[in-house]
Amino acid sequence: MLHLQNIRVTLGSFHLKDISLDVKRGEYTVLLGPTGTGKTVLLETIAGMHRVERGSIFLQGKDVTRLPPEKRNLGVVYQDYALFPHLTVRKNIAFGLKLRGRRGNKTEETIKKMTDFLGLGAILDRRPAYLSGGERQRVALARALVLEPYVLLLDEPLSALDRSTRDRLRRELKRIHREIGVTILHITHDLTEAFFLADHVAVMKDGSILQHDIPEQVLKRPRNRAVAELLGIENLVPGTMGKKGVLLTSLGPLNLPIPGSQGMKTGNEFLLTIPGWCVEVLTGRDNARYVWKGTMIVAAVNFMDGLVELELSHPGGERLRTRLSRREIGNMGIDVEVGVELQVGILKEGVYCISGR
Amino acid sequence: MVGGFFWDMNSFRTIIWGLGTILVLIVVVPLLRMILAADPMVLRSTVADAEVMRSILLTLRCALWATLFCAFFGIPLAYILARWQFPGRSLVQGIIDLPVMIPHTAAGIALLMIYGRKFFVGKVFASVGLSFVGTEAGISLAMAFVSLPFLVNAARDGFLSINPRLERVARTLGASPWEAFFKVSLPLAWRPILSGGIMMWARGISEFGAVIVLAYHPMTAPVLIWERFESYGLKYARPVAVVLILLCLIIFAALRAIAAKRREA
Q1: Is omega for the bond preceding B218 within 30 degrees of 0, making it cis?
Q2: Residue B165 has pLDDT above 80, yes or no
Q3: Per residue in A14-44, pLDDT tens?
Q4: How far does the CA of residue A38 sit from the closest CA of chain B (Å)?
Q5: What fold is seen in the domain A233-355?
Q6: How is chain B split into domains, by residue range?
Q7: Is the CB of residue B186 less than 8 Å away from at least one CB of chain A?
Q8: How far is A137 from chain B (nearest CA, A)?
Q9: Is A86's CB within 8 Å of B168's CB?
Q10: Average of per-residue pLDDT values in chain B
Q11: What's the complex ipTM?
Q12: Does the model's pTM come out above 0.80?
């Protein structure tokens, strides 16, 4: 559906470098990256607002690189929604249809169907200034969706909302995608949002796409340190390949083969990515699924909503973070506080070995 | 000290209000004095004076032409200044502000040296029957030259206050650049443009220096006031001035009210 081929864009001192991306029909792709990384520039480039220096953009197999925005049939929803303040909700939604010269009963029906679908029936005659954040977002979605765009481009559409509205609208976006089947490219810096919604995740940093895959794969096998950090993987432990496939780390040697370590030679450096959920506090039962076991000391206890984060320190100097539910902590039968020694194991699944540092 | 904050606040307010009020009085007192000193009988005869009414209407009309003329060229320029970065942008901005700074008699002379009958541009226009010396066109030109910053700057600020994303979204919804301008940018900047236009018109009406160089005749109201003052003295100049001031006050109050109503709508 949407295919970017080695796109290069320069805006002042900022560059999009050699970006390639494939979004298939009906897919929900999330472009994940920190603020100031060029996500919005990329989205606006796809929409036709910036000049492409090099590379091509294909829509439905057609080269649209030089087409102006109005000829691309893409829908855009911005973080601030960019509703026309001088027009009512109804006129905002009808804006694009009117420009296409579409009036009459059929058009009215199209608008009605969309506003019913998004629950906007009661606010059609209001101006944007009198709408809540959630309502504005749905109006912006309706305005783009009535035109049946090839791709719906969403620029941080949930960032400006309070938490409960955001949670609700996240589900709403999923429902819209499921029921309308529109192809979506959604940009965000929010991990929860990305993994909640995405069929595919593209991780972006400093004007480049670092990795593009299904969420599970990106989480399980981050391509490099930058991706692992952006994904919020709690523990990154460096090490060196020892003899006979033993992985030497500051925690000590790990003896089981770990995904990603095959093919590495003795002396090669690597980085282990260990998600917090792989770090378990042992309660007596031994288990072969652990790639490493040892004694660690609780260095900090941080209360987060619903979970407790433990910072554990190893005599070798390494620190690991893990998150436990309160029930799990209760089941341990000991007071978990700073200075307490715990037996800790690292689960095999979830750990991945990135070649290099 | 207990109560210190409030005491400080009170003295602060008193002084700030005092300073502001003095400036308002500097404007209002002379005008009021002049209006109140006018003899109603003389005022009535002034209103009945055909020459006075003719010159006032001429002034209003020429200032209106000047404003419309500048709107046609000035709104696009304001849009350029608000939306695009280009080399020499601040130079262009400075040029637009120039008419505020230079003495208006000097501006009149400068215009005369381009549009005068002896000069090239003047000759070109003369060949199509348009003369700028001693004509309404000349008066409008002089007014336009000295008052255009009011319109251009207000329109530029109006465009600057619009989120550029609105125009971009309009484009993705199928609008051409022209449609985005006329359906989104212009309607949203309309109020500042209108108020800039009112200011420009007002400034045009009051113009004396540049107008008198290009066109002593036909006589605009400021020129007529000057002429009566020179020929007959204060007593005869004053009623004309009072009539002009009252008329302008009524018109501007009405226009401001209309502009304010649009805001509420």
Answers
A1: yes
A2: yes
A3: 888 888 999 999 999 999 998 888 888 999 9
A4: 16
A5: OB fold (Dihydrolipoamide Acetyltransferase, E2P) (2.40.50)
A6: 1-37, 43-264
A7: no
A8: 14
A9: no
A10: 90
A11: 0.83
A12: yes
Give A67-109 pLDDT, tens digit per residue: 999 999 999 999 999 999 999 999 999 999 999 888 788 888 8
| Percent of residues, chain A, with pLDDT higher than 70 | 98
Taking contacts as CB-CB distances below 8 angstroms, the residues of chain A near B188 are: 84-86
Q: Is B165 in the A-facing interface, judged by CB distances under 8 Å?
A: yes
Q: Which residue in chain A has the smallest CA separation from B191?
A: A86
Partner A contacted by B184 (CB < 8 A): yes
As a residue count, chain A comes to 357
Q: What number of other Cβ atoms are within 10 A of residue B98's Cβ? A: 12
Q: In the numeric block, which tokens belong to residue A275?
A: 């998600």
Domain B43-264 belongs to what topology?
MetI-like fold (1.10.3720)
Q: Does B83 touch chain A (CB under 8 A)?
A: no
Strand ordering across the sheet containing A54-59 = A14-23, A2-11, A54-59, A62-63
pLDDT, position B71:
96
The pLDDT tens digits of the residues spanning A215-239 come to: 988 888 898 888 998 888 888 888 8
Task: Give dist(CA A91, CA A182) in Å, integer.
Answer: 23
Closest Cα of chain A to B197: distance in Å?
A: 21
| DSSP tally for chain A: helices H, then strands E | 9, 20
Candidate from A127-131, B31-35, B138-142 with smallest mean pLDDT: B31-35
Query: Each residue of A263-319: pLDDT tens digit?
Result: 788 888 888 898 888 888 887 665 657 888 888 888 998 888 778 888 998 888 888
A317-334: pLDDT as tens digits: 888 999 888 888 877 777
Interface contact A147-B173, CB threshold 8 A: yes
Distance of alpha carbon B157 from alpha carbon B238, whole angstroms: 38
Taking every pair of Cα atoms in chain B, the longest distance, rounded to a whole number of angstroms, is 81
pLDDT above 90: residue B257: no
Domain boundaries defined on chain A: 2-223, 233-355
Which residues on B lie below 8 Å from A70 (Cβ)? Answer: 171-176
CA atoms B214, B215, B216, B221: torsion sign: negative
- Contact yes or no for A96 and B173 at CB 8 A: yes
Topology (CATH level 3) of domain A2-223: Rossmann fold (3.40.50)
The CA distance from A93 to the nearest CA of chain B, in Å, is 10
CA distance A27 to chain B (A): 21
Q: Which residues of B touch A99 (CB under 8 A)?
A: 173-175, 179
B163 and A96 in contact by Cβ < 8 A? Answer: no
Tokens (6 digits) for A181: 């089947």
User: What does the CA dihedral B12, B18, B21, B27 come to, rounded to 10 degrees?
Assistant: -130
Residue B163: list chain A partners with CB under 8 A: 80, 82
Of A70, A74, A84, the CB nearest to B176: A70
Q: In chain B, whose CA is at the least distance from the CA of A79?
A: B165
